[in-house]
Amino acid sequence: MEANENGLQNLQQNDKAPQKGAQKGFFSWLRVHIFDWWMRLLILFLLVVIMLLILKLVDVNVIAIKFDYFAYIGPVGLVLLLLLAVNGIFSIVDLCKRRIKQGVIGLIGTLLLGYLTLVLISVAFFFPGMGSEEDHFADNLKLPEGIELTEPLKPEEYTAAHSVEKVPEDSFQYQVIAAANSEKGLKKDDDCRVPALEKISLMPDGRECLIRYLNASPEWDVYEDEDRCGLYAVRHFQLDGSIYKSRNHYYLENEHNWNWQYRLGIGLDGRSWYPIKMNKTKFSGSKGVYESVSAYSNGEVVLDIFEQNKTSCRPMTAMTLKLLEKEFHALHLLISEDPKQWVKAVPADTNIRKDAQPDIILYNDFQGGIYNADIWCNPGEPGLLYLKAFEITQGTPLSEDRMPNAKAGYSGDPNEMFLREMGFTIYEGNWGQYYGARFEVWFKPDSDQPDRKLFEKNFKIEGWQR
Fold it and tell me: Which of 94-98, 279-283, 359-363, 461-465 has maximum average pLDDT?
């Protein structure tokens, strides 16, 4: 009888034991099952779900900092692939130890989750457009009544407006390209200065004449980047009868097999676009591809030349220095006699119109919401042009922190208009959702006088869909 009572007490104690140690027993249970096939797959599945939830919640509407959260799918997916590979190794070990069921199910789960991860990575890296999301900005917007809206012109009309009949074979661009991969160039420590450019920058009116000349030339573009380099000029390539403008100002071999890459700029505020030591050339490269970045002071301005080539002697840089000396020597001779003669050095008058009126012409680019603008104006004094855009019915600013700027061309003749070109993207709205937008052309004088609006024009536009 006593034995039965003791046995009953033992059973009761055993029944209570799991309840008493339930909290710390979880970790013991986890250690036992952490390598089970279903536990590994559960952890991987939760990682995938957490990743998707984070990417969904971290939106530009939630956080003030604007970025494309969809781009993070790729890196996170690569981490998941690594974890899946580890899970696959454990599953193979299970099979080797004759844990057939656990190993087979583990491998099947690894393949299924691996497929899902690969899809995410493929979308992120190769089909970014599939991840686009509508922002609903224009869902309830209607085209305003009683207001004339101009439709942007087609991309081919932009090309036609900026093309010439034929680019001479002795043009700046063709000569620089012809020098690519040549064995004749510069030595490692050769100076990269242009004497004529230095002379112009040190003249009393030289810098202003230089800026006006660069503004009027169809092959140069002047803009301001306050954070990086201040007032800056970049040179465009004029090939196949039209000006080819790269958005990052780099130009490369037409077949895109990277035989050469090139960039030319002038820091008009004495600051280089590149964060490198002044009056030096930085060399890098591997596997037969050589890169050089040269930043040299030329009086009050800085000349930047980037070259990527199969030869280390910088043949494109050497040709650039030769051609720039010729170009700026002609300008120096003219303005030495009379600063007003700078206009005679402009290779073509395509950027100047006589007896014209201010205007902005908008062109569609390769995708909806991406535009090029031709701005014809003459503020009558030196300064900076910039754009503002607003949705018409509610007055909402559009892409407020992303609108471009450009140095203004000017003269004393109010009927003489100068062309400034700007490329930009409107991010509000989606493809096919058209609404009215007012584009305003503003001017910031160099004289520190208040900014003023020059003119405005209304357009029918759509936004770029992320």
Answer: 359-363
Quote the CA–CA distance of 465 and 426 in Å, as a whole number.
9
What topology does CATH give the domain 352-461?
A: Immunoglobulin-like (2.60.40)
Order across the sheet with 383-391: list the strands. 405-407, 383-391, 435-445, 452-461
Higher confidence at residue 228 or residue 120? 228
pLDDT score, position 183: 84
Count CB neighbours of 86 within 10 A: 13
CA 421 to chain centre: 17
pLDDT at 310: 85
Q: Which residue has the tokens 């917007």?
A: 141
Report field, pTM of the whole predicted structure over 0.90: no
- The CA-atom distances, in angstroms, between 71 and each of 122, 137, 370, 419 are 11, 22, 20, 37
Exposure string over 427-436, b if 16+ CB within 10 A, otherwise e: bbbbeebbbb
